[in-house]
């Protein structure tokens, strides 16, 4: 299939303008930086969802007791929020890497300016950076999944599938984040991303079921990506399937495809001014 | 074949015509300069050559290819030294050279010895494992130039290569660039320093407000737009302007700057003697050879560095 | 061209000798008296650049929290344990959220900006080159942030009252309590920021291992004693918990003995005073070496 695409003249011309096929060098640089970095920085990123889980799971869990989980089964409050925290942390990491991090390297560290003076094209740089974001996401997803399994908060081997799903969630958000970054000119504008993410985190069935809200509000929440991520993770954590599982999965596959297409369209605006 | 062939090259940012229908050619091995004040459009032209800025109209060929449609291929033969150093602050000096070479798809077996050579060239062998942030301004600049050579480019783009360096560091750099030129590397230099343009460039394009105002070798430009010598006179800031009319007959032409008067003439000492004999006593006086600064002043009525 | 004027019509001679400036002695006297305020004024002016995010966080945060905590989480908690400390969950959690938001804003104001004042923009050195003393610079910085916290807390409180999340009668006292707790955390933090020579990862470590645990474990979302004893100490040493307990007392009458009130207040005041003293000392050392 790749050869098929490569042989189409429009695609071939586009690739010639935007890629040297050398994404590997960008990834190589990413790993070199990680190796030189203070390991505490990398490890510390793992703690945030764990702290949330301990605090809310134990403290609020004592006040709440059990909650209705997927398939109508009663599960502990900690087991209810753990998969949601994994989805949220995948989202946050991807958004941070594709907005703040990209913007900083673009406008202040001028890292991409240096890269794009070589035979690398914007596509190589973007693909390499998204790969590195997903790699960090993978480390944290594995760590968190191990923690919640050790705490007995998963009841099915399907919970292992939470790891690739975390990557899928991250890919969708990273692609859209990178496309949005092409519209930004100041750091202040990025505060608005955080302002949009906070309510999404609070209302997407992460800490409590959305049935608490009026039906109209529920319908709105169901259009948001994080809600689909949270519900999907929660179903995987207990190994429960129904028709909605397919909907959630389709939502994220579509979001990733559209996000990558969107980011690709904005690629030259982002890197070449 | 020309290394660079620009025809009616134009870049518009909103209302601003940063580069306005500029046409020029650069031959292989030539040392070509873009001279002009800040904001003249030199850096934008450079970035379009590297394919990192998309042009609004016109055509541009670098080694026969359009950098917009063949960016990666075009840049493989370029070495770019940007106006402000954009070294990778998360890597040390040596890794900056090696990783940069990786971006060109070069193998480690070539890059490891090459990095040592380039460190030597930049006089940074002792600083190889130092983090970039710990290097001085001059060292960073030399590292940036060394980095641009990692792919053995046939064309080197230097955007204000010595701005912000002390005189000694500038001379070291000029020496290094001169040796590259001797080896047949095409140099394209932007600068707002006259001495730099005179030192490095065979041929110059003088730019202002995005347009070409003159073209030629430094010597030819001076000959065409200036006299052999310039007499600079200061009478104190309140008297300079008032004396322009009185001095009109003494020189081929006069430029009045806020702080001094410039008298263009073939023989500065003779004119100075006549001014003194006339009972005018300047606070300071200086006779010097005409420079590109005078060319620019003559062409635009403005000083290059303000 | 007119004599003594440049092309834009500015009289250069008047720049140095207009005779309109105060005498040097007068300038020095003004600064001795008001230098700390000039510094605060300058810092508050700088906040204009990002006043929308200050306003946004002060208004939107309580709005979102009340919706999420009051309707969503509140319904869950109230239905399973009938409220907390004898009041609905929203009433219980609102004072804690106010204090937590104000304390966390001290991190934005007193980490990178303070270090940047020494290392990047070097604005403190510019200040120290005027007639101001280093201690005036230090006090002015803290004062400006204190003013920001009061404003932020007041806005937050107004939103809480408007949404019916707190009873306005005594709860306005929370504005002062939150600012006190914020500065009890912020002043020692500023003194630390003033010692940093290099931007390592100290601030992100503080964010992740001090601020975040404080937010999550210092009794903001539930009473401290619903945690196991080995985690309760995090609350005891957190300005956030002491401020929250006092705020709950004035907001809905959380029963505190006078000894407890004195302990909470004392803890915050001691941290604040020590923090100011250390900030003054560290600014003085750095600006006069």
Write structural notes for this entry.
The complex is a heterotrimer of chains A (273), B (306) and C (289). With 273 residues, chain A is mostly helical. Chain A has helices spanning 2-6, 9-18, 23-36, 39-44, 47-64, 77-107, 111-115, 122-150, 162-181, 187-203, 215-223, 225-238, 243-271, and strands at 66-68, 74-76. Chain A has one domain. In chain A, helix 3 packs across helix 8 (122-150). Chain B is α/β, with parallel strands linked by helices. Chain B has two domains: 4-217, P-loop containing nucleotide triphosphate hydrolases (Rossmann fold, 3-Layer(aba) Sandwich), CATH 3.40.50.300; 227-289, Alpha-Beta Plaits. Chain B is built from eleven helices and 13 strands. In chain B, a hairpin with a 2-residue loop joins strand 8 (203-208) and strand 9. Chain C is mainly alpha-helical. Chain C is elongated and about 80 Å long. In chain C, 44% of the residues are buried.
Write the layout of secondary structure elements.
The complex is a heterotrimer of chains A (273), B (306) and C (289).
Chain A: H1 2-6, H2 9-18, H3 23-36, H4 39-44, H5 47-64, E1 66-68, E2 74-76, H6 77-107, H7 111-115, H8 122-150, H9 162-181, H10 187-203, H11 215-223, H12 225-238, H13 243-271
Helix pairs in contact in A: 3-8, 5-6, 6-8, 6-9, 6-10, 6-12, 8-9, 9-12, 9-13, 12-13
Chain B: E1 4-13, E2 16-26, E3 31-35, H1 42-49, E4 57-62, H2 71-75, E5 78-81, H3 93-103, H4 108-121, H5 137-148, E6 155-159, H6 167-182, E7 186-191, H7 194-200, E8 203-208, E9 211-216, H8 218-225, E10 229-234, H9 244-247, E11 253-256, E12 261-265, H10 268-277, E13 284-289, H11 292-300
Parallel strand pairs in B: 3-7, 3-8, 5-6, 6-7
Antiparallel strand pairs in B: 1-2, 1-4, 8-9, 10-12, 10-13, 11-12
Chain C: H1 12-17, H2 24-46, H3 51-81, H4 89-110, H5 112-119, H6 123-128, H7 134-162, H8 168-171, H9 173-193, H10 202-217, H11 229-236, H12 239-252, H13 258-287
Helix pairs in contact in C: 2-7, 3-4, 3-7, 4-5, 4-7, 4-9, 4-12, 7-9, 7-13, 9-12, 9-13, 12-13
